[in-house]
Structures are given as structure tokens and as C-alpha cells.
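Project outcomes to date are best conveyed with an example. Our students and postdoctoral researchers have been running inverse folding experiments weekly, and each run begins with a structure described purely in C-alpha cells. The record below, which covers 177 residues, was selected by the lab manager from last quarter's runs and is presented without edits.
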């Protein structure tokens, strides 16, 4: 096999992207099914919000050099969903995430969703909370087909969205007794 630097307007490259191999197509369909299973039954607007959030998360870069892992996303999404659920009922209470990276992700995602849902009020908050709960379920590996790795959910999302997967993160654990 020989690899060449193909220009972006190459007809062969364009054809390969337009008509992927059958195995690639089946994998994409399986991945999409897993993602949608974690989300549950949602409206078309919520589905759009789901993919908008997922794209934003894949492009999120923490200010320090640590990357986001599935557990961070699950923690941030759960905390933000809880905040939106209480806000949709008229109570303002900001739930905090447990880890430093998850809290950073939660704050940035909250600011992003404030722009997206501007003027949506309690209805947007309730719909966003439902979507965030689905993301938290997926990132917590609650669905069959998501591996046990630290970034298996994020990698699955990257494959579905044809985005670059997140940088591999290796976190060392410190145990104090």
C-alpha cells in the first residue's frame, strides 16, 4: 500500500468520502444507533441540540494540558442538567461538577448554551436538561456497545460526527491511605 498526499480536489478522494466502504458504513450505523439509544425519544429540535453540544464538546480544549474523558463529560452534563431542571421550575440553583476539568467544562458549556438558548426560557432549559441527561448516560457508558475505556464514548461521538477524536488522555491515579 502506498500513501500519497492527495489534493483536496482529487476526484478519487472525493469519491472515497462520498461512497465509503460497506464496513465503514455499517460501523457508522451501529455507532449512531448506540448514540441515539442513550438519548432516548426526543424532538427534532432536541436532536439538533444534541449534535450541536456533541460537536462543541469534541472541540473543547481545557486551558491546561489535560484533556476531557468520558467521566468528566458525564459529570459536567449531569450537573448542568440538574441546574437546568431546577431553573425550568423557577428555582435558580447552580449544581457544581465534582472534578476540576468537569467543572471547567460545565461552566464553558453553560455559557455556550446560554447563547444558543437565548430567549428560550424554561422550555429551552427543560429540553436542554433532557438532552444533557442523555449525554450523561452515554458518557457514563450506560448503553451496550460503548467500551470501558476512558474516552470510548467521546471516540464514538467523533466517529459519528466525522470529527477528529479527542487527544488520548492518560491520568495517573494517586491513592492515599
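After processing, the design step wrote out the following sequence:
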Amino acid at each position: 500500500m502506498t500513501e500519497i498526499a492527495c489534493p483536496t480536489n482529487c476526484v478519487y478522494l472525493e469519491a472515497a468520502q462520498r461512497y465509503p466502504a460497506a464496513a465503514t458504513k455499517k460501523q457508522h450505523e451501529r455507532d449512531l444507533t448506540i448514540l441515539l439509544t442513550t438519548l432516548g425519544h426526543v424532538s427534532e429540535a432536541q436532536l439538533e441540540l444534541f449534535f450541536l453540544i456533541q460537536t462543541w464538546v469534541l472541540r473543547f480544549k481545557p486551558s491546561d494540558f489535560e484533556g476531557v474523558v468520558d467521566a468528566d463529560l458525564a459529570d459536567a452534563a449531569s450537573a448542568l442538567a440538574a441546574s437546568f431542571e431546577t431553573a425550568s421550575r423557577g428555582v435558580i440553583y447552580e449544581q457544581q461538577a465534582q472534578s476540576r476539568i468537569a467543572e471547567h467544562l460545565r461552566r464553558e458549556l453553560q455559557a455556550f448554551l446560554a447563547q444558543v438558548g437565548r430567549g428560550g426560557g424554561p422550555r429551552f432549559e427543560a429540553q436542554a436538561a433532557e438532552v444533557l441527561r442523555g449525554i450523561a448516560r452515554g458518557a457514563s457508558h450506560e448503553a451496550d456497545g460503548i467500551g470501558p475505556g476512558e474516552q470510548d464514548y467521546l471516540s464514538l461521538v467523533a466517529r459519528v460526527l466525522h470529527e477528529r477524536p479527542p487527544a488520548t488522555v492518560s491520568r495517573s491515579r494517586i491513592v492515599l491511605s
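The mean pLDDT is 85. The CA atoms of residues 146 and 152 lie 6 Å apart. The training component of this project remains on track.
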